[in-house]
Amino acid sequence: MSVKTVAAPLPGTFYRSPAPGEPPFKTEGSTVAPGETVGLIEVMKTFTQVAAEEAGKLVRFLVENEDAVMAGQPLYELES
Amino acid sequence: MPVSRLLIANRGEIAVRIIRAARELGLQTVQVASRADLDMPAARLADQVVEIGPPQAARSYLSIEAILRAAETSGADAVHPGYGFLAENAAFAEAVERAGLTFVGPRPETIRLMGDKAAARAAAAAAGVPTVPGTEGRLADSAAAREAAARIGFPLMIKAAAGGGGRGIRIAEDMAGLETLLQQAAAEAGASFGDAGLYLERCVPRARHVEVQVLGDGESVIHLFERECSVQRRRQKLWEEAPAACLDDATRAALCDSAVRLAQSVGYRGAGTLEYLFDAASGDFYFIEMNTRIQVEHPVTEAITGIDLVREMIRIAAGERLRWRQDAITRRFHAIECRINAEDPARGFLPSPGRIESLRLPGGPGVRFDAAIEAGGIVPPFYDSLLGKLIVWDETRDAALRRMARALAELEIGGVATTIPLGRALAAAPDIRAGRVHTTWLESWLAQHDFTPEREAEPIP
Questions:
Q1: Where are the beta strands (DSSP E) in B106-206?
Q2: Which of B34, B174, B376, B422 is deepest in the core (most CB within 10 A)?
Q3: Which positions 20-59 of A are in contact with B (Cβ < 8 Å)?
Q4: Could you tell me which CATH number the domain at A3-79 has?
Q5: Are A14 and A69 in contact (CB under 8 A)?
Q6: Is B419 on the interface with A (CB under 8 A)?
Q7: Are residues A44 and B54, on separate chains, in Cβ contact within 8 Å?
Q8: d(Cα B114, Cα B289) in Å, to the nearest integer?
């Protein structure tokens, strides 16, 4: 078991759910499969999906919903 | 109410534009800025900067509370909203006035009225301004649909009452196809929007987008001629011209008069734009909506009329009457604006925020570049992608096209991907040069052209 930090692929605003008021894509403690959507990043009014690259358990998010993130900034911890 | 200290509730190039106008009027300027924008050109140009919150627009430029607080702490007595953000938010205009400040724009009730599509349509009809023929409200049943279709004429669009952004639209070519398409559209609307309500609207094939600039002082309204903005991608304008070369003089006069009638009927105050669809085949035009703010493409109108629209809207807000009668407004030249966005046209218009590493600006006669970028400056990822607007004017449209090609060849922005290569290709595109465009032209042109930055403009023969 190892815990790694996954970084934001793009700069922008990070969203944990597909739309305001909707449940988040992933909650802390849930399992993720490769390709699954973990969140969205809004860059210049364009939304890009943040997809998991590998399987594991999402331990915790390192940024809040709707936080501003820079590319390369740690987004979440993944245990695999 | 006299204005002496103007707060600019916006960012980017329009903030710079407003500061310039305010300074020429001898006003002090207060620039609000999110934490991502503290070093932007408008912030350094203004007399005072007030930080209003984190980078996300929802907590800064869209926060009525944060902006009013900035106005209070800075002692501003007027607020210019620019475009986008809170510019067409009636509650914001109301809050500004309630705080005892001057709102540079229309009265809140005008913003509310023209922002409601059905109400704006009704106002147009009452002023004798044509709107796209269609049904009012939801269709009761297929008999009602057939009856309405016979009145509206084919082809027509079947639209979902709860839809928007072009989703769920079907085009019926004739009565025979109508029934099937109605059933499909109702089923899809029910599934997509939880509301199977439909309405019909005449389809205007190959419609062109024309719009009329007006200025009003609350009593009198004048027009400053029209613009054509048919070159759009996903309803975003990329290339705008004034005048609209597709109009003859009689149609232009009828169009501009209709805009004045409608704006006059609502006692319009400030700068506004009435948007129309124009059917070049029949010569008919239809009012679609009014934008109750300054628009991105206002400089092409300034270029052909010589009137500074932003300065004028501040004067009007300060209580001045219109300084011209309609017959004093004349036009000369042809003007073109090309928007420069931080997007990569060779990669599906992927947004490209980052650092501007190098910048070479165009110049010479008949060239204006409205922007808020500098070498070494950062283009943040949190806002729209507009970097600047290149505007050119010359004696004729042909000459203006050559001038645009020349100026675009001079303009270089390094460090971020931009739409400059697209602009260069458009300046040389035969359809643009012949004026054969309509609102979906650019999307089909992009689909047919394997657009890459390497394949740039051929010289204009």
A1: 156-160, 170-172, 198-202
A2: B422
A3: 42-46
A4: 2.40.50.100
A5: yes
A6: no
A7: no
A8: 7
Interface test with B, best of A41, A44, A49, A73 (most B CBs within 10 A): A44
The answer to whether B210 and B280 are in contact (CB under 8 A) is no
Nearest residue on chain B to A12, alpha-carbon basis: B381
Cβ within 8 Å, pair B385-A44: yes
Q: What is the pTM of this model?
A: 0.91
Spell out which residues of chain A touch residue B342, defining contact as CB-CB under 8 Å: 44
Nearest to residue B242, comparing CAs of B390, B391, B57? B391
B275 vs B262: CA distance, rounded Å: 12
**Burial classification of residue B406, based on how many CB atoms lie within 10 Å of its CB (0-12 exposed, 13-18 middle, 19 or more buried):** middle
User: For chain A, what are the domain ranges?
Assistant: 3-79
Q: What is the ipTM for the molecules in this complex? A: 0.82
| B351 with A11: Cβ contact below 8 A | no
Distance of CA B120 to the CA centre of its chain: 17
**Does B107 participate in catalysis according to the annotation?**
no
Residues of A in contact with B36 (CB under 8 A): 68
Q: Cβ neighbours of residue B377 under 8 Å, at least 6 residues apart?
A: B39, B40, B41, B355, B356
Structure confidence by residue, pLDDT tens digits, B385-438: 999 999 999 999 999 999 999 999 999 999 999 999 999 999 999 999 999 999
pLDDT per position as a tens digit, B207-243: 999 999 999 999 999 999 999 999 999 889 999 999 9
Tell the burial category of B274 from Cβ atoms under 10 Å away from its Cβ (0-12, 13-18, 19+). buried
